[in-house]
Amino acid sequence: MTKVVLITGGTRGIGRALVDVYLRHGFAVATCSSNPENTRQLREAYPDEKKLYVATFDIQDGQAGRQFVKKVLDRWGTIQQYYFNSGICLDKSFSKMTSKHWQEVIAVNLTAAFDITQAVFEHMKAREGVILMSG
Question: Which keywords describe this protein according to UniProt (predicted)?
């Protein structure tokens, strides 16, 4: 049985390194990004890889995140490992942080983490699995 890992933010940085390592170790890998160019580049790096599923959507959209998890489960039937690796830092001092910036940080770093993790947890709770969060 193929082991499956879901990694958010897997098109660059730490997430991309995780995708590369897991594919080398034979895992099926599902990942996502809000940036179409980043998802295109990852697909081009692995043009014949059948164990890679890359989705493009705004992680702030809770329904899209839940649909992503559903598509992964429809495709492979399970998720054994999950890394929430998405996050943003709008590096501003308190006096320069606008309410809009604050809401964006909360939407990505907390609400999206909750939405996708809850969807994965609902699947994992009756099985064994690993959930890791980074930011």
Answer: Oxidoreductase
Q: At 133, give phi and psi (nearest 5°).
A: -120, 135
When divided into structural domains, the chain yields a total of 1
Q: What is the domain-level CATH number for residue 115?
A: 3.40.50.720
Q: pTM of this prediction?
A: 0.92
Question: Comparing C-alpha atoms, which of 80, 90, 96 is closest to residue 29?
Answer: 80
Distance set, CA 89 to CA 49, 94, 129, 131 (Å): 32, 13, 29, 22
Position of tokens 């599902």?
30
Domain span including residue 72: 2-131
Q: Where are the beta strands (DSSP E) in the chain?
A: 4-8, 28-33, 52-56, 81-84, 130-133
pLDDT digits (tens, 9 = 90+) for 86-106: 988 887 788 888 999 999 989
Other C-beta atoms within 10 Å of 130: how many?
Answer: 11
Does residue 23 contact residue 52 with C-beta atoms inside 8 Å?
yes
